[in-house]
Design a protein that fits this description.
Blueprint (H helix, E strand, L loop, with lengths): L6 H19 L5 E3 H5 L5 H19 L12 H15 L3 E3 H20 L4 H5 L5 E3 H8 L7 H12 L4 E3 H14 L8 H10 L5 H4 L15 H11 L4 H6 L6 H6 L6 H4 L2 H10 L5 H13 L3 H13 L9 H14 L1
Antiparallel strand pairs: 1-2, 3-4
Helix pairs in contact: 1-5, 3-5, 3-12, 7-8, 8-9, 12-16, 17-18
């Protein structure tokens, strides 16, 4: 990477931070479940990046689900595959020794995003000479700190009607965004201090920015509230995320197919999204809403009942991602 900083030092710091976090959280466990991973730390931005690493592995495996010898479009096969993918996403289980590698990568990405964001493209897309728009779009879901960088990159590529762009050109765009919108940058003051202690100085322009406080290591205070926030922010839908990777993938086709049961369609990860963002953690109302959605006579009937029961109670926003995703599942039920 062409930068003033010794990136190997960043990796050493990431390994140290990962170990510190593991020592605080693991408590002798040898295996982590999906629930434990999506709320692993009190820092939602880090949890998202951990999940990104898991989905990178998932993408490699699911890419093999296309074959010239089998009819993956047959209704019976499609239903079986949807059931399989949803079931699998609800049964994530990772050994600690394997999770450590994912955590170190995610922590490294977090360090770069917060302490040296101009290096993030080379870190996320190593050995690539071009970057695709759909890669930026897919990764945007996992970026919760300095997310505006990815949003601006997406807008720039769309404005220029580019579906891909050479890495140097993307890097130039990123540099312009950083220069013109540096007041939006977020970082972690504690982390930045540790970076300064081990690496060559970051240029003066970056170090003089005002940064909001975040924490990479779990604090003892407000444990319950931070846990809920981490779960809420870390609730990433498996099928929808993977569907962005290619318009022609099997998963993309499956994610748009008609469903029989909303309760069975909602993965564990998506349940956390709906429960926390739409129902403020009220499991009784969440289950009631699922029953309404599953047993209505029509889409319009389901929408009317859900609005009557919950829209005002929980102040649902028309622009809420969780609301839009829930409505998409509802649409597929009654399509």
């Amino acid at each position: 990477m062409n930068s003033q900083l010794d990136i190997s030092k960043f990796k050493e710091l990431s390994e140290t931070l990962s170990k510190e976090l593991l020592d605080k959280v693991i408590n002798g466990r040898r295996i982590l479940s999906g629930d434990e991973i999506i709320s692993f730390s009190d820092n939602p931005a880090l949890n998202y990046l951990i999940i990104r690493e898991i989905f990178q592995q998932w993408n490699k495996e699911t890419a093999k689900l296309s074959s010239p010898y089998f009819d993956y479009n047959h209704p019976v096969v499609k239903k079986a595959m949807v059931d399989f993918l949803n079931s699998l996403s609800s049964h994530i289980s990772i050994k600690i020794e394997d999770f450590i590698l994912l955590l170190q990568k995610a922590t490294f990405n977090y360090v770069i995003l917060t302490a040296y964001p101009r290096g993030i493209l080379e870190v996320l897309y190593p050995e690539q000479t071009t970057i695709k728009l759909q890669e930026i779009e897919a990764d945007r879901k996992f970026i919760k700190v300095n997310r505006f960088l990815f949003e601006e990159l997406m807008l720039s590529m769309k404005r220029s009607e580019k579906v891909s762009m050479p890495l140097p050109q993307c890097q130039e765009l990123l540099e312009n965004i950083l220069q013109n919108q540096k007041d939006k940058l977020e970082t972690n003051e504690e982390l930045l201090g540790r970076v300064r202690a081990i690496a060559k100085p970051i240029d003066q322009e970056e170090t003089n920015l005002k940064f909001p406080q975040t924490h990479i290591i779990s604090p003892e205070e407000n444990a319950e509230d931070t846990h809920k926030e981490a779960v809420k922010q870390s609730s990433v839908i498996l099928n929808d995320t993977l569907a962005q990777s290619s318009d022609n993938t099997l998963i993309d086709k499956l994610s748009k197919s008609r469903i029989q049961s909303i309760r069975e369609e909602i993965t564990l990860i998506k349940k956390f999204l709906f429960l926390n963002e739409l129902f403020k953690g009220n499991n009784e109302d969440y289950l009631k809403a699922i029953d309404i959605a599953d047993n209505a006579s029509s889409y319009d009937g389901a929408i009317a009942k859900l609005r009557e029961e919950f829209e005002n109670k929980y102040s649902w926003s028309n622009e809420s991602e969780a609301r839009l995703e829930f409505l998409d599942i509802l649409r597929r039920k009654y399509s």
